[in-house]
């Protein structure tokens, strides 16, 4: 619905938060930030949609982290195990294998019952295509949703991509299932957020990033 929008056109606000399609119909597909298919496999007949921003459950309502996520890396699983319901930062210099670790973790969930969402932010289209090809080769794409906001997309779509991926993962959470979400990478989202904030003339902080980054 947004593909034909051009600069200078008149638009009307609906007063609603942006919603994206959610559900098992998205598994095995590559979609953009708005949940529209970009893999050439036809339309997605999702029955439900979900707002990209919802109030998170309070600490009291959350369960304890007591089940591990097996990444397939013995060093990680034995020494610094990641629990279901936990967030983990993968940090390091360029070209040391951060994305490879994340992709291998997704592949390892192929038979675990955990659904995966891979959110590619600000990457080259060729890099994303290689990731999708690798997931297909290892039989993991059928269990995965790939959300793409490539470097050629607008800053707004790159900023919203993690929220869209999270909404898709929360669909499974709300039904008592588990989901692994990989954001690759959030530094690109921060750059997009900086562009938006500067255009909105919000007070910049260190390195011109907004104060809430």
Automatic annotation (TrEMBL):
Its main location: membrane. The keyword ATP-binding applies. Residues 72-213 form the ATPase F1/V1/A1 complex alpha/beta subunit nucleotide-binding domain. Gene3D superfamilies: 3.40.50.12240. Keywords: ATP synthesis, ATP-binding, CF(1), Hydrogen ion transport, Ion transport, Membrane, Nucleotide-binding, Transport. It is found in: Membrane. This is Alpha-subunit of bacterial ATP synthase. The lineage of its organism: Bacteria, Pseudomonadati, Pseudomonadota, Gammaproteobacteria, Vibrionales. The gene is atpA.
